[in-house]
Amino acid sequence: MPSKMISLLPWLAALSGLLAIAVGALALPAAVYFALKPATTLFIIAWAWPRGAEAPTIRRWVRAGLALSLAGDVFLLWPEGFLPGLVSFLLAHLAYIVAFTRKVRFAARPLAFAVYGVVAAAILWQLWPGVPPALRAAVLAYVVCLASMAAQAGVLWLTARGPDAKALARDAALGGLLFLGSDSLLAFDKFSAPLPLASLWILATYWLAQGLIARSLPAGAGR
């Protein structure tokens, strides 16, 4: 893909995402939203695709995480797709964990895991009464995977050496943090109380998180 076209993809993702949020907020035809929501993630995947050529194993797992997230996006377009969507995103977080452990071992900085563990426990404590019993095991497993992914991304940043590696690892860490924030907002909106402008905050932080994780792969022209 020509480099000029690649450089346009983040802008196309931003435009598609903003349109999807607006369509959802204005209750415009569902078909438009159903097209725009996965299209935004597809633009992020297309932008990430040529990145990370010098780290093929990491690239493979980040690509897998993005693809599984796309599947989750599609499942969540329907109310009955919540559980398959949850499983898809759980697998996406596992893929990201694998990617983030290629350069540093899992939980190499226990403090990062302790901090995210406290945050995850606080979120679960607030949400638990509103989570249907049939979904509690799945939600618990999901929160553990999500918090572990965000914590491991933080570990990657804390252990990175050199300005370039630090910058890339910082993107992963911020992506993990924003993913946790986005899914927390989604969970509170679903299981606790409706949030004002929920779609705006949930989707904006979600796509920004995915974009940052994609950007944690070094830029390159490899296929």
Provide a descriptive summary of the structure in words.
Helix content is 76%, strand content 0%. It is globular and about 45 Å long. The longest helix is centred in the C-terminal third of the chain and has 29 residues, at 163-191. Helix 2 (30-48) packs antiparallel against helix 3 and helix 6 runs antiparallel to helix 7 (163-191). The protein is an all-alpha fold and 223 residues long. It contains eight helices and no strands. The chain has helices spanning 3-25, 30-48, 56-75, 82-100, 110-127, 136-159, 163-191, 198-215. The N and C termini lie close together (9 Å). The protein has one domain (55-215).
Summarize the main sheet. Answer: none
Cα-based radius of gyration, to the nearest Å:
17 Å
Total number of helices: 8
* General form: globular
Number of strands: 0
Q: What structural category arises from helix and sheet content?
A: mainly alpha
Structure characteristics:
223 residues, 76% helix, mainly alpha, single chain, 8 helices
Summary, kept brief:
The chain has 223 residues and is mainly α. It has helices spanning 3-25, 30-48, 56-75, 82-100, 110-127, 136-159, 163-191, 198-215.
Layout of secondary structure:
Layout: H1 3-25, H2 30-48, H3 56-75, H4 82-100, H5 110-127, H6 136-159, H7 163-191, H8 198-215
Helix pairs in contact: 1-2, 1-8, 2-3, 2-8, 3-4, 4-6, 5-6, 6-7, 7-8
